[in-house]
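Fill in residues.
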């Protein structure tokens, strides 16, 4: 189906005027059931595959086939320093210097590594502040780290939650909690964009409040990186972790990322879980008789194991596209896409759908979370998928939908709302 459906003229005009529209063709769009146009609005869960990825992975397969172990050192693009090549691109996305970021492991593993370093409870300051609705993996990680220190998680966690009758967090409430309990809080761990509500938190204000109280502060940026502007260095964040399979489009289980602020790099008081890839690459193969771990400077010193080259190749391809288009242009389009989506949803009427994500453009990224009031939201998500419209449902009652500016269009947004409109009328 290639003809535009009636009623979507405004969307067609918006797409024609979109300066970043050409990037859509650089992605594989999943096939839709026969007779339907596919609409993929699930980049908050798994980003689409850039067309450039296959050649990048194939290149490394060829090097492996033709060079074997020599591929580690032979130009061009030797594997030994391969993970270094993605650091500048990642740094630009999170507002850091290349030395402050590293691509390694998966998100939760990196969170454990960061907790091992930055969560050092003392007799008077042992608590961790998290949000009530934190992603399950973060909760498991935090609870298990607290237990490693022989503390009781239920006594140790401080939770912030939306007020009664509200769905999203207020920065004022986080600040008041820190003012009240900050002396006992060792670490603040919050998301950049909340996975369920799509709320973007004010990381700058939260970091300032946490640091005023002497707390360390780290962020889970799974839903923020490649989605919203970040300035981790200038905000003075201690650490951050993210995955690369959502807005970074680096593939299922892609190599994740980690930020550690430069002011910690020279600090010898910080302990860490160590492995040989964290050492100076020039002396990595030297067998020290004293077993002393000599980390390389910067976030790369937290690496443990040999980087997975085949999994890093897609990340490199994806970051090049971000550099080409620029996050400012993407954010600009993203706000127009979500603005248009919200307008169309509001037109359906307050008894049909409620948008949970805050209205203020500063308080959200590409994702809007909806409450479908016209019936069972889970069933609606399943029905939409039979028409090739992909979004998702999260317990207890939220439909998540993310028009991703790199590959979604205003027509995609229109088609999604049109499909809801048809169901609302039934
Ligand atoms: C907010 C958030 N944190 C953590 C994770 C876990 O990531 P991983 O499985 O890569 O460790 C996810 C996964 O979707 C997530 O959405």
């Amino acid at each position: 189906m290639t003809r535009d459906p009636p009623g979507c003229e405004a969307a067609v005009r918006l797409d024609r005027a979109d300066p970043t529209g050409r990037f859509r063709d650089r992605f594989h769009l999943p096939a839709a059931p026969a007779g339907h146009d596919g609409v993929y609005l699930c980049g908050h869960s798994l980003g689409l595959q850039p067309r450039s990825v296959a050649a990048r992975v194939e290149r490394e397969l060829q090097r492996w086939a033709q060079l074997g172990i020599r591929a580690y050192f032979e130009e061009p693009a030797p594997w030994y320093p391969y993970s270094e090549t993605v650091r500048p691109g990642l740094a630009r996305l999170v507002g850091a210097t290349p030395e402050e970021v590293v691509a390694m492991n998966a998100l939760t593993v990196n969170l454990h590594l960061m907790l091992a370093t930055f969560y050092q409870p003392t007799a008077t300051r042992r608590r961790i502040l998290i949000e009530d609705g934190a992603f399950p993996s973060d909760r498991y990680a935090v609870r298990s780290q607290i237990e490693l220190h022989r503390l009781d998680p239920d006594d140790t966690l401080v939770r912030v939650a939306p007020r009664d009758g509200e769905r999203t967090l207020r920065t004022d409430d986080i600040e008041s909690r820190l003012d009240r309990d900050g002396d006992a809080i060792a670490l603040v761990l919050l998301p950049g964009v909340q996975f369920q509500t799509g709320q973007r938190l004010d990381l700058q204000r939260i970091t300032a409040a946490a640091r005023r109280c002497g707390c360390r502060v780290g962020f889970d940026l799974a839903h923020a990186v490649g989605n919203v502007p970040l300035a981790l260095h200038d905000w003075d964040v201690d650490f951050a972790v993210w995955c690369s399979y959502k807005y970074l489009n680096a593939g299922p289980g892609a190599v994740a990322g980690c930020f550690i602020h430069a002011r910690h790099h020279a600090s010898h008081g910080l302990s860490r879980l160590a492995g040989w890839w964290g050492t100076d690459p020039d002396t990595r193969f030297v067998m020290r008789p004293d077993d002393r771990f000599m980390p390389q400077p910067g976030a790369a010193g937290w690496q443990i194991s040999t980087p997975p080259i085949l999994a890093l190749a897609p990340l490199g391809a994806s970051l090049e596209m971000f550099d080409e288009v620029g996050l400012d242009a993407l954010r600009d389009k993203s706000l127009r896409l979500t603005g248009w989506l919200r307008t169309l949803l509001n037109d359906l009427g307050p008894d049909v759908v409620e948008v949970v994500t805050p209205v203020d453009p500063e308080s959200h990224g590409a994702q809007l979370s909806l409450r479908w009031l016209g019936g069972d939201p889970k069933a609606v998500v399943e029905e939409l998928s039979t028409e090739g419209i992909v979004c998702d449902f999260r317990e207890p009652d939220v439909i998540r939908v993310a028009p991703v500016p790199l590959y979604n269009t205003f027509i995609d947004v229109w088609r999604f709302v049109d499909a809801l409109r048809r169901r609302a009328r039934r």
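Residues 106-108, 135, 137-138, 191, 195, 220, 222-223, 243, 256 surround pyridoxal-5'-phosphate (CB under 6 Å).
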